[in-house]
Amino acid sequence: MADRPGESLFRRLHSSGRDGALPLHLPAHGRGRGLAPELRKLLHRPPGSWDLPELPGFGGPLEAEGAVAEAQRACAALLGAERCWFGVNGASGLLQAALLALAAPGERVLLPRNLHRSLLHACVLGQIEPILFDLPFDPRTGLWLPPNNVHLERVLAAAAPLRPVAMVLVDPTYQGFRADLPNLVATIHGHGAGGLPLLVDQAHGDGSALAAGADLVVMSLQKAAGGLAQSAALLAQGGRIDPASLERSLLWLQTSSPSALLLASAAAALIHSQGAAAAGQRRRALGRAERLSRRLTALGLPLVANDDPLRLVLATAPLGIQGTEADAWLLQRGVVAELPEPGALTFCLGLQPPPRLERLLPRRLLEMRQSIGGPALAAFSPPPLPLLGWPALPLGQAWRAAAEAVPLLEAAGRIAAEPLCPYPPGIPLLIPGERIDAARATWLAEQRALWPGQIADTVMVVATTAGGG
Question: What tens digit of pLDDT does each residue of 362-384 get?
């Protein structure tokens, strides 16, 4: 008999947390164990009692008065920001609003190659021209790395004739890599006559980019704090940012009926993160993470050195295993990782790592090495990209144009019609409007073997009838 409508969804949610799995994925609250205390209390109330509209006295993120406005002011003060806005559409929605506030139609912004695709959506919505800058690359793991100051100075010098009006950095990265942000911010703010405003995508961070001097910081409170999915915060400071422009962008992109629960989640997670209880919680989690890392290293399991011990990154390539293959093998045995990539697998330990972590994870990883390991994989080749690149056809025009599929190896000279994002977090290997040269087409074909089932043997390009030949 077929399931009743929605039965599979409801069954999965009811069984979540009782399936015996080892959850090493986001949200960081570990299926509720690490939720901010005030949020946990709220969720214990009768279901739906907290599902409220913007009642008088309660307000909303763009209201000057009310409980939400008061909580936003309190959170801004706690984090050292001049302004704070809660978001209920995740970090994605706030990144888009921030970018729309930084650039007018036709203006250019500098975006890193490891950008989240939501920023491309903002470029389409705001008719903003992206200038993509390349990043350092690790051939051992196939991961992009943060830029250093020398690399950033090269980027800014090359971009100067294009007159960008703002810059975006991702820090920390999904895998827990951090840049020397204070030095990078000083370089960006010192560029040209008045310097560039900087937006930091700190979805995987704690808001510390603000102390480094960033003008705008976006946080995802489910990724590095004890909030629910979709709860996020936008922090602003300094004279390079117009608060009225930010509020206008937020009005365009945020719902007029924000979830009271998600607004409370943002407030609870931010307030808790700055307190003594959270410091103790994090200290305990870091202690467990560091002991686990030492044990795995002693067992000969190679870890990628990063700046966040709660993001445990296994270098699978030296074991002769693709990260995507390792993820599938572990998933069948109850270990749920967060981010598989061709040469690495990232585990998010969270603010309160699961009880069986130290016992079960080393055992499963050793079994995996014994079962499917082999000679180390060859070094990964970086994408053949220039230091700076931009679409040959405006991003929005390419995305909306008539498109056709062509084999990857026959795509040289054609213009991409769709982004190529083989796996969350939505980092595009190709963006709409980019012209694909022969080296890029060959590299993309090679990537297909590294992302089994996630990159097709064809790519969507602008049809020649639409002017994309």
Answer: 999 999 999 999 999 999 999 89
Alpha-carbon torsion angle 34, 40, 44, 46, nearest 10: -130
Asked if the 391-466 domain carries CATH number 3.90.100.10, the reply is yes
Q: How far apart are CA 292 and CA 347, in angstroms?
A: 12
CATH topology of domain 20-30+282-372: Aspartate Aminotransferase, domain 1 (3.90.1150)
What are the pLDDT digits (tens) for 27-36?
Answer: 988 888 889 9
Q: How far is CA 18 from the centre of its chain?
A: 28
Question: H/E element holding 460?
Answer: strand 458-462
295, 18, 28, 74: CA torsion to nearest 10: -140
Neighbouring CB atoms inside 10 A of 74's CB total: 14
The rounded distance, in Å, linking the Cα atoms of 363 and 237 is 47
Q: Which residue has the tokens 């920390």?
A: 172
CB 425 within 8 A of CB 443: no
pTM strictly above 0.85: yes
For residue 467, pLDDT beyond 60: no
| Token output for 290 | 């560091």
CATH 3.40.640.10 fits 40-273, yes or no: yes
- Among the residue ranges 184-188, 201-205, 298-302, 425-429, the one predicted with the least confidence is 425-429
Q: Which of 75, 58, 130, 128 is nearest to 270 (CA)?
A: 75
Could you read off the pLDDT of 55-93 as tens digits, one per residue?
Answer: 889 999 999 999 999 999 999 999 999 999 999 999 999
Report the alpha-carbon distance of residue 231 to residue 268 in Å, rounded.
10
What secondary structure letter does DSSP report for 363?
H
Q: Which residue has the tokens 């003060």?
A: 77
Q: Would you list the domain boundaries of the chain?
A: 20-30+282-372, 40-273, 391-466
